[in-house]
Design goal:
Elements lengths: L1 E4 L14 H8 L4 E5 L10 H7 L2 E3 L2 H5 L3 E3 L17 E4 L7 H10 L2 E4 L13 H18 L21 E5 L3 H13 L2 E6 L2 H11 L3 E5 L2 H10 L2 E4 L14 H5 L6 E4 L20 E4 L2 E4 L9 H22 L9 H9 E4 L2 E2 L2 H6 L1 H4 L1
Parallel strand pairs: 1-2, 1-4, 2-3, 4-5, 5-6, 7-8, 7-10, 8-9, 10-11, 11-13
Antiparallel strand pairs: 6-14, 12-13, 14-15
Length: 365
């Protein structure tokens, strides 16, 4: 199969869909890979690295997009809509629940779009997990930075010092993102509270953290109390394929201390904080009700060397199967084939993913 790898055009998105190591695996199996020039430069991979791996270098995005399958990292932006067409496979993150326009454009184009975040395996999301790990860890790293007074924050050191209390971190959601955020916050010496609606998950987190974190059941009273007492709030709520529920209202945010920070990792699925809107790496924060809000949807793009390789470690088996069989790979009884089938969002001008259909019922008709 002919596979295209365009350069990402989202603001300061330096990851790339395929690393040179992944390209070599594909080329060794007699597939042709066309990589847009400079597509990997931000992740530390030059055109010469791709040539050595067996790829052809495309002079522009149109050439990379002209291939039978396109492998990306982030969802297509408006400048890329015109490249999509029928009988083409698109494999990337999509997060359609937060993007009606993109959903409509995918349907109109006729492309078959498989979303990384929708691929399932034994109740897990294997292609979302590596980026969730990175985003969870970065959420505290960025949160600590914007708590600095010069960045608009309260001037709180999360770990505190002898004689001065440590900062307080509230983590909304105890999944992969929330767990990784809590690990980082605990490691810094912060006072950490994790809130989740799943009692079984809270029990697992108790085994993992012991008495180092406070574990609370998710209800409106507990959320309000934890958020208003926190110096840093991490939104880590995921409902696969659906828009994240709003857990923190505008009224609760107004009760937070001035200079507190919110980092909502769920922003690419609509966010779980009512006052949170999408930002970018160029302009990552804004202040509302005296609270610093961080809403960058592609957080792992800040560490592209690590993130690209972590993503490829997970996506490569799926890319290989798609390259071998195209859409017939979705009919395979293998774990990879079954996962790809769950990941199909749009096909033959139709919205086919059940969870996204619930978000846009009029498009599913």
């Amino acid at each position: 199969m002919d596979i295209g790898v365009p350069k990402e055009i989202k603001d300061q998105e330096f990851r790339v869909g395929l690393s040179p190591a992944s390209v070599k695996e594909l080329c060794d199996r007699n597939h042709q890979v066309v990589v847009e020039t400079q597509a990997g430069i931000g992740a530390g991979f030059g055109d010469e690295d791709y040539v050595k791996a067996g790829a052809k270098i495309a002079p522009d995005a149109a050439t990379a997009w002209a291939q039978a399958m396109v492998v990306k990292v982030k969802e297509p932006l408006s400048a890329e809509y015109g490249y999509m067409r029928s009988e083409q496979l698109l494999f990337t993150y999509l997060h359609l629940a937060a993007g009606r326009e993109l959903t409509e454009k995918l349907m109109a184009s006729g492309v078959s779009a498989i979303a990384y975040e929708s691929v399932e395996h034994k109740g897990t999301l294997p292609l979302l997990m590596p980026m969730s790990v990175i985003a969870g860890r970065l959420s505290v790293q960025f949160g600590a930075r914007f708590l600095e007074k010069q960045q608009g924050g309260r001037g709180v050191l999360l770990g505190g010092v002898p004689g001065v209390a440590a900062g307080s971190v509230a983590v909304l959601g105890g999944g992969v993102v929330g767990t990784e955020a809590a690990k980082m916050a605990v490691g810094l010496g912060a006072q950490v509270t994790i809130i989740d609606i799943n009692i079984e998950r809270l029990s697992q987190l108790e085994t993992l953290f012991g008495s180092r974190v406070n574990l609370l059941y998710s209800n409106s009273a507990n959320v309000a109390a934890a958020v208003t007492a926190a110096d840093l709030v991490i939104g880590a709520v995921l409902v696969p394929g659906r828009k994240a529920p709003t857990l923190v209202t505008r009224e609760i945010v107004a009760q937070m201390r001035a200079g507190s920070v919110i980092v909502d990792v769920a922003v690419d699925q609509g966010g779980c904080i009512e006052t949170l809107r999408v930002t970018s790496h160029s302009e990552p924060v804004y202040t509302e009700s005296g609270v610093v809000h961080y809403g960058v949807p592609n957080m792992p793009g800040a560490v592209p060397w690590t993130a690209t390789q972590a993503l490829n470690n997970s996506t490569l088996p799926y890319v290989l199967q798609l390259a071998e069989g195209g859409l017939t790979a979705l009919k395979s009884s293998s774990a990879v084939g079954k996962g790809l089938a769950t990941g199909l969002n749009v096909h033959n001008h139709r919205l086919v993913h059940p969870a996204v259909q619930e978000v846009f019922p009029d498009l599913a008709a």
